[in-house]
Design brief:
The chain is mainly α. It has 35 helices and no strands. Helix content is 77%, strand content 0%.
Length: 597
């Protein structure tokens, strides 16, 4: 008769789930059969009938039957009698009957007795009885033993979590997965066919399939990182429907990234109403993008109230955008004092903009030490403004090592000044790869300087392929870098590609490059378009280009417009450089003599 005793276990809540109101006719007939047998003195029937009444909640009817069966040595009845007494609040008497049943070999009673001792702080006794239960194959006993061992930091906990998980205990499967996840963070696979992370996923999947909402959340996160977004969304949805706010929030981000902003907002709203600060921040950002600043502020405050420090930071950003500097300062400080590194950086920027460099520096330092890359870069700018180049370079290097593009450019430029071309190239490549047009241009210059001078091409020789330096110039030019555009035009002109050269010179000139305008004028003049060339030289000369002014002086002199030529020659003398000023001076004197002759 151990079966009834093993099934009638004390659940984790300490209570039995009550049956439905409607009775099964077959069950009623079965109960009547057991009742007749019990009245006839059948001990097994007494035990079974007592268990049935206990599950129904008829404690008075169950107690007499269970006591009678226990007196006859039925261990299942002793276990269930302990359950009954525990429900009535007689914990010590319940423990006595559980001990009787456990000594007689009841795994369920050993589990209940172990839990009783743990609730009273007697961990050695709890471990003894829980181990007895677990070793007899009791699933709840294995889980409770694992919980006790894990609480103590005992490595044996994983073994019993695995035992319980393999027998279908979903919480054990989830906790086993979490333990494997933690191990995966510190271990390397070393080529092993199966890693802790792989096994963790298996157990998350098993627990999630049994309705464990947090396991479904973690499984969704694993799948999302792997790019399996459709399946990740299904698990997030399952978890969110079961009330997991973090899953609802994650599902919202997944939908937002897929372009379904309205559905995303629905799930964020559900998560935020359930107290998820991240979802409240997402709603705030959504309304801020739509210009609904009051609604955005309300959700940012809700995030802050939910304990998410990003709420205060976002409130600071919102106030700063509106020009409410005092309020921005207040919210940035609140977030910064709570350890938000980007809020500390933003506060420092705000102070610096207000002229308080001394007040900004400690906040930049605090943010940088906490890992803010932007703060490290800003510290570099601050020290550079004080002409402390060594300190500035140290912070630039720190930011560059973390991938900050502008910091890498600053380090590369500093190394160029020092003559360390190898280090300069390394940092410039990082910055250029990160999208810095200036870094791409400077890298092109560095590589260009290493090229041997190219001789004139042999007759019939095909045009040379573009070099790496030209590729970097082009990358910078495509981003609108005017000097790079001029350089690309010069290289194209050197290859004889007049059309390509004119294209880049024109782009640079139209963007305001005086060198681009001058070179475009030279190209047009060679092609016979002297009037248009004069227009571009005029633009370049007006911008301070001495050679363009000299070209204009020569052009007007050839046309016989001596006064115009003299005026541009004087302009070229003023603009220089020295050799241009010398030539322009001679031309001006000749034109003066011609005019006075």
């Amino acid at each position: 008769m151990d079966v009834m005793g093993d099934k009638a276990t004390l659940l984790e809540t300490g209570r039995f789930v009550q049956p439905a109101d409607r009775e099964d006719p077959g069950a009623a007939a079965e109960e009547m059969r057991h009742r007749l047998a019990a009245e006839a003195g059948d001990v097994d029937a007494m035990s079974v009938l007592g268990s049935l009444l206990l599950r129904r909640g008829d404690l008075d009817g169950a107690e007499s039957l269970l006591r009678a069966a226990t007196a006859e040595g039925d261990r299942a009845a002793a276990n269930n009698l302990g359950v009954l007494l525990h429900q009535r609040g007689y914990a010590d008497e319940a423990a006595g009957w559980w001990r009787v049943a456990a000594v007689a070999g009841s795994a369920a009673a050993a589990h209940a007795l172990g839990r009783h001792h743990r609730e009273r702080g007697d961990e050695p006794a709890a471990e003894y009885w829980l181990r007895q239960s677990a070793e007899q194959g009791h699933t709840l006993g294995a889980y409770a033993l694992a919980d006790l061992l894990e609480h103590r930091g005992d490595v044996g906990a994983e073994r019993w979590l695995r035992v319980a998980a393999e027998r279908g205990h979903r919480e054990a499967a989830y906790r086993l997965a979490r333990a494997l996840d933690r191990r995966a963070d510190t271990e390397h696979a070393d080529g092993a066919a199966r890693t802790p992370a792989d096994e963790a996923e298996q157990w998350y999947r098993q627990a999630a399939a049994r309705g464990h909402r947090r396991a479904a959340l973690h499984l969704g996160s694993i799948l999302e990182r792997r790019g399996e977004l459709k399946e990740a969304g299904r698990w997030y949805l399952n978890s969110a429907k079961d009330g997991e706010a973090r899953a609802a929030c994650a599902l919202g981000f997944l939908l937002r990234d897929a372009g379904d902003e309205e559905s995303a907002a629905v799930w964020w709203l559900k998560a935020a109403q359930d107290g998820d600060g991240n979802a409240a921040n997402a709603l705030g950002a959504l309304h801020a993008e739509r210009g609904e600043t009051q609604t955005a502020e309300r959700w940012y405050r809700a995030a802050m109230d939910a304990g998410d420090v990003n709420g205060a930071y976002n409130l600071g950003l919102l106030c700063a955008e509106q020009g409410r500097t005092a309020h921005a300062d207040q919210w940035y400080r609140r977030a910064a004092y709570a350890g938000h590194r980007e809020a500390a950086n933003a506060l420092a920027v705000l102070l610096l903009q207000g002229g308080d460099a001394a007040g900004a520096e400690p906040w930049f330092s605090k943010a940088a030490e906490a890992g803010s890359v932007d703060a490290a870069f800003n510290l570099g700018i601050l020290y550079a403004s004080r002409d402390d180049e060594d300190a500035a370079l140290r912070w630039y290097e720190r930011a560059a090592a973390a991938g900050h593009t502008d910091a890498a450019l600053q380090v590369g430029t500093a190394r160029l000044r020092e003559g360390d071309d190898q280090e300069a190239e390394r940092h410039l490549r990082c910055a250029a790869g990160g999208g810095s047009a200036e870094a791409a241009y400077r890298l092109g210059m560095l590589l260009d300087a290493r090229r041997p001078p190219a001789g004139p091409p042999a007759l019939g020789e095909p045009a040379a392929e573009k070099t790496e330096c030209e590729e970097w110039y082009e990358r910078a030019a495509q981003q609108g870098h005017r000097r790079a555009q001029v350089r690309v035009g010069m290289l194209a002109s050197g290859r004889g590609d007049v059309v390509e050269a004119a294209k880049w010179y024109r782009k640079a000139a139209e963007a305001g490059s005086r060198n681009g305008a001058f070179n475009l004028g030279l190209l047009l003049a060679r092609e016979g378009s002297e009037p248009e060339a004069a227009l571009w030289w005029t633009r370049a000369a007006d911008a301070g280009h001495g050679r363009a002014a000299l070209r204009l002086a020569l052009l007007y002199a050839r046309r016989g417009q001596l006064a115009q030529g003299q005026r541009w020659a004087s302009r070229a003398v003023d603009l220089g450089p020295a050799e241009v000023a010398e030539r322009a001076g001679r031309l001006r004197e000749a034109l003066r003599q011609e005019l006075t002759a």
